[in-house]
Inverse folding.
């Protein structure tokens, strides 16, 4: 099978317009005859379900949460980009496009990224019309800030809760459609399989998490908006329930998985403090604007921060990158912190942290100034660690934050299974090997509000659908498969808890497939993960029944998939013999220790095809061409 | 698909009615007290009896009185209705509930204080209203007051009930303004000052009567 | 640290339920309340007992999933935080802690400490939105909104829908939740055209769900993890009376 990205012809600024004109339309009166399932209710899922319902399609929406508003998009803090150029600082669609392609280290499709930049302005208009209370200036117009090292101020924000406000906006649009009867919504339902009939995605199997029944949902098309796979690492900034099961089951039904090794590590998180730790908390990147990062010059220095004199401190980012200093991109800052800790310079009881010190800023501008700017973050830090960051420096460490890889989709956001669309973080499409700050919200909403409503119509209008019933063999078989798997899990009755195994998977993936990877480590991971998989299926212990709310059973199904995905992640990382963006291979670095891309051999997307249980997946490649933004080496010296 | 309510079958509407009737009854407290202050005029009850006579016979007053009874009735019925609804909203109680950490006792006990005030009202009407207005017995209202307040048990009940009325208004008065949607820095101060008159000063006024007459009785002034 | 935990156990909606005492050992003072439950649950699973079910997700105080009545206080003894942000150092070593689910007719218990808060969703569906379709919205800067108004709308919009207001209220009233939403949309010019229908529909749905009325005790404000002000309830009342009387 050859991957056809279906990128339209024509100059880049005309591609989306031309494409929209060429897409087939569904007659308004016929739309309600088409039934579409949207899985997930985050930014992408809610906005897609609402927008498709507004068009007249018959929509079923599901999520495993108790309410659509709980989806993890809610936790995004920073903001959402749009090249409105309200600040008159020279922003444009082209500049946002350029920044995103470059920031993605030249591993994203130009056409997709350009379209993303094109529609992003409409997202802001849409959200304001819905009542999203973005920050404003005294004159009453919208405020913008510069974010994530961008040279223009194009980020719209609602305090530190931008994701929450955007999600509540999309959720309100969804609520309106549920009320109108155009969306049927089901809460506490987890998708456990995709049903493919004659090569087309025609429905899903979902488990009712309250009473355990397996439910069958037939449809003409299925849209997955189920988020990323960061929790493969156990500890991440993701919500506890965030998982890759829907995407992984789709992969096993024929959807290719692209670039799984492109994972993003965020440099400023509160470090791990003990074994009980269940998740990591992000401290906004903006802290690096005023905080200085340092470690002691002496190895294994156990003195308290304030007892270490100035001349015995190593402000390593300022030393290594004189011009960017503490503001180097996320991947660079993260890697350097790890390096310091690995070499014995780490601080705190675990030695797995570096200092982020505000003493200079406080001395310069006063405590009040800092309080006004970062008060909220300082409070969170204080709450979690019981340390006062106004007095002692913060301890920070990088943590898994976002996954750029995901289900492979074409320009229409359709996967390799006809009728299966994938939106938001769940797909691989727009961020290449590294995502810029304030771009995730933009992509989720672009996919849901402004892309899928156009592209799905073309598929529906040009496909003939044979009627399906829930008792057709394909549905029965899929349901039986899921049932079997659940029964198998619950009957193992071993000795290890699900979390215990998940933690171990997290340790393997973090150690060998984390911030810096090398051939040896990856091979090691590829030995250890299958062993862990075996152990899981022989020794996992799940109590409780299948027929009731059973968190352990839910987690077990997800961890089983994370183990498999973790293996693919390592495989992809091993195969990609270059460093780019969030994927850093120690063998491939410049003399200064920076990522060294190999554009001759790896200027492509690696898309993995499931080849059967226990078999090595088949690799397909989609060549990437850069006509507008010519690949260059990033430098922050 | 969408439902609407009319004012009386919505919880907010019923609260509005509670607030409105409550404030109306507060106005009665002012009038009732100001008239009763004539009790303190040292004329052997002549002015007070004349005032009582006027209140009992004036057509306008008698008409307003009907409104007053309707106000009491509505306040009591809607209060009880809301109380029942509110209890139904929490069929299972908490094992431990530290409500005092998050709200005042006055705000949580308006139904209880209101109920006691209601009992007081019945007793009070039975003492002063029933003999003169319903049974039509011809006697001096002043003498009736003097006689009733000679009983220390009656006085104690009176004082406690009025104190509870004050406690009821401690929450109730300002609460009505919240229910009317009048809240904000602009009004908060003003409402709190006026509230003080109702929950503290007026009850003191009322309480002074039985205390005064009991003192007078015991010290042989009367 | 060690604790005696008295937790509510209930198999499902039909079960009567009861308190069961557990002891939690060697808990780090830095652990969150939910992490303490994780540790305890891990032990229970190892012993072959069913773990205590509780809702949670983001564990950073924004998703609104978690919500426990801890020693008689919604989200525990500290103000302005959700249960997931509560750290065990807030408790005395060796103390006993009573954990209960939110109690309200409109929040039926599903299992143990998990309740069904879909009544909140139904209130939102009844009118918690501005009726705009995707596309065709005017430019975002077409309507200037005074900063003070937009900030106040944001104060209300910060609600995470956790239900602590209902749990803390002696009447299980949802007025702070509904007030926050109505207030957020009523403050903004975009939300004005539907203000009458919105407040009528949301109040009607709120009553139908079986939430109690507001007694203005303001326990909701005191227990709200986002410290949302009861000024928004006043605005809700105003909006409703305006819809009915004006």
């Amino acid at each position: 099978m050859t991957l056809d990205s279906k990128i339209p012809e024509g100059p880049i600024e005309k591609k989306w317009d031309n494409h929209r004109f060429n897409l087939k339309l569904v007659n308004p009166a016929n739309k309600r005859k088409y039934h579409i399932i949207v899985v997930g209710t985050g930014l992408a899922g809610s906005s897609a379900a609402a927008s498709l319902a507004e068009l007249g399609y018959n929509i079923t929406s599901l999520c495993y949460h108790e309410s659509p508003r709980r989806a993890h998009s809610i936790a995004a803090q920073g903001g959402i980009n749009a090249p409105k150029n309200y600040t008159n600082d020279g922003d444009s669609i082209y500049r946002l496009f350029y920044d995103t392609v470059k920031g993605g280290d030249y591993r994203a499709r130009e056409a997709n990224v350009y379209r993303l930049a094109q529609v992003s302005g409409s997202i802001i208009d849409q959200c304001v019309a819905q009542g999203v209370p973005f920050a404003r200036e005294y004159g009453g117009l919208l405020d913008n800030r510069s974010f994530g090292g961008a040279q223009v101020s194009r980020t719209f924000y609602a305090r530190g809760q931008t994701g929450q406000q955007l999600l509540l906006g999309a959720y309100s649009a969804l609520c309106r459609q549920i009320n109108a009867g155009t969306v049927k919504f089901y809460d506490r339902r987890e998708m456990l399989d995709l049903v493919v009939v004659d090569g087309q995605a025609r429905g899903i199997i979902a488990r009712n998490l309250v009473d355990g029944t397996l439910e069958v949902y037939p449809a003409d098309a299925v849209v997955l908006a189920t988020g990323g796979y960061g929790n493969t690492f156990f500890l991440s900034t993701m919500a506890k329930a965030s998982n890759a099961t829907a995407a992984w089951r789709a992969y096993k039904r024929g959807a290719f998985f692209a670039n799984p090794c492109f994972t993003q590590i965020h440099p400023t998180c509160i470090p791990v403090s003990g074994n009980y730790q269940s998740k990591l908390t992000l401290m906004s990147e903006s802290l690096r604007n005023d905080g200085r990062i340092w470690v002691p010059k002496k190895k294994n220095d156990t003195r308290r921060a304030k007892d270490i004199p100035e001349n015995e401190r190593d402000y390593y980012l300022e030393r290594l990158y004189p011009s960017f200093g503490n503001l180097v991109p996320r991947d660079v800052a993260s890697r350097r912190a790890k390096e310091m800790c690995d070499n014995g310079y780490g601080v705190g009881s675990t030695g797995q942290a570096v200092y982020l010190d505000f003493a200079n800023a406080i001395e310069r501008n006063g405590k009040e100034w800092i309080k006004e700017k970062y008060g909220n973050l300082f409070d969170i830090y204080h709450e979690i660690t019981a340390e006062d960051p106004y007095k002692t420096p913060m301890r920070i460490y990088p943590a898994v934050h976002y996954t750029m890889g995901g289900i492979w989709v074409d320009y229409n956001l359709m996967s390799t299974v006809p009728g299966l669309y994938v939106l938001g973080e769940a797909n691989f499409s727009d961020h290449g090997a590294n995502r810029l700050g304030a771009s995730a919200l933009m992509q989720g909403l672009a996919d849901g509000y402004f892309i899928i409503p156009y592209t799905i119509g073309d598929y529906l209008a040009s496909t003939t659908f044979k009627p399906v019933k829930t008792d057709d063999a394909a549905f029965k078989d899929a349901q039986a498969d899921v049932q079997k798997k659940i029964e198998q899990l619950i009957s193992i009755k071993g000795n290890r808890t699900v979390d215990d195994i998940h933690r171990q998977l997290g340790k393997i993936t973090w150690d060998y497939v984390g911030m810096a990877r090398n051939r040896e480590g990856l091979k090691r991971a590829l030995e250890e993960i299958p062993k862990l998989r075996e152990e899981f299926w022989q020794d996992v212990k799940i109590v409780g029944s299948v027929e009731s709310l059973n968190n352990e059973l839910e987690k077990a199904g997800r961890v089983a998939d994370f183990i498999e995905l973790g293996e693919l992640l390592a495989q992809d990382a091993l195969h990609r013999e270059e460093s780019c963006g969030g994927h850093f291979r120690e063998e491939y670095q410049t003399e200064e220790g920076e990522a060294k891309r190999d554009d001759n051999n790896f200027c492509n997307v690696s898309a993995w095809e499931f080849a059967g249980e226990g078999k090595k997946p088949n690799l397909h490649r989609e060549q990437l061409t850069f006509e507008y933004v010519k690949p260059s080496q990033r430098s922050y010296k | 698909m969408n439902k609407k309510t009319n004012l009386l079958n919505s919880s907010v509407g019923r609260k509005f009615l509670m607030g409105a009737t409550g404030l109306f009854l507060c106005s009665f407290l002012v009038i009732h007290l100001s008239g009763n202050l004539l009790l303190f005029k040292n004329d052997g009850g002549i002015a007070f009896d004349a005032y009582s006579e006027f209140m009992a016979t004036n057509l306008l007053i008698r008409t307003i009185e009907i409104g007053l009874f309707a106000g009491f009735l509505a306040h009591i019925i809607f209060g009880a209705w809301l109380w029942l609804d509110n209890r139904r909203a929490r069929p299972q109680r908490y094992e431990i509930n530290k409500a005092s950490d998050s709200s005042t006792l006055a705000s949580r006990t308006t139904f209880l204080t209101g109920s006691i005030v209601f009992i007081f009202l019945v007793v009070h009407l039975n003492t002063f209203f029933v003999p003169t207005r319903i049974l039509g017995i011809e006697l001096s209202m002043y003498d009736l007051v003097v006689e009733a307040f000679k009983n220390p048990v009656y006085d104690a009940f009176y004082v406690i009930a009025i104190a509870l009325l004050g406690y009821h208004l401690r929450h109730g008065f300002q609460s009505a303004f919240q229910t009317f949607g009048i809240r904000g820095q602009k009004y908060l101060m003003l409402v709190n000052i006026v509230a003080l008159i109702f929950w503290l000063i007026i009850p003191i006024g009322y309480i002074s009567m039985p205390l005064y007459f009991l003192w007078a009785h015991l010290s042989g002034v009367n | 640290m060690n604790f005696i935990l008295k937790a509510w156990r209930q198999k499902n909606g039909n079960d009567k339920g009861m308190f069961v005492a557990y002891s939690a050992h060697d808990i780090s003072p830095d652990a969150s309340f939910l992490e303490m439950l994780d540790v305890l649950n891990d032990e229970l699973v190892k012993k072959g007992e069913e773990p205590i079910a509780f809702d949670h997700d983001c564990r950073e105080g924004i998703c609104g999933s978690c919500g426990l009545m801890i020693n008689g206080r919604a989200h525990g003894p500290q103000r302005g935080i959700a249960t997931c942000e509560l750290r065990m150092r807030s408790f005395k070593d060796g103390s006993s802690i009573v954990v209960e689910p939110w109690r309200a007719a409109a929040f039926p218990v599903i299992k143990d400490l998990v309740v069904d808060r879909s009544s909140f969703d139904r209130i939102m569906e009844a009118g918690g939105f501005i009726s705009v379709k995707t596309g065709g919205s005017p430019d975002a800067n077409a309507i200037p909104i005074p900063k003070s108004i937009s900030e106040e709308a944001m104060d209300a919009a910060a609600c995470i829908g956790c239900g602590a207001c209902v749990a803390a209220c002696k009447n299980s009233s949802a007025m702070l939740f509904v007030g926050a939403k109505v207030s957020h949309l009523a403050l903004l010019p975009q939300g004005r055209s539907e203000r009458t229908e919105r407040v009528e529909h949301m109040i009607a749905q709120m009553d139908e769900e079986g939430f109690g009325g507001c007694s203005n005790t303001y326990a909701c404000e005191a227990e709200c993890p986002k410290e949302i002000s009861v000024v928004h309830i006043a605005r809700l009342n105003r909006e409703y009376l305006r819809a009915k009387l004006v």
User: Anything to note?
Assistant: The radius of gyration of chain A is 24 Å. Chain A has 16 helices and 19 strands. Chain A touches chain B at residues 179-181 (CB under 8 Å). The longest strand of chain A covers residues 394-403.
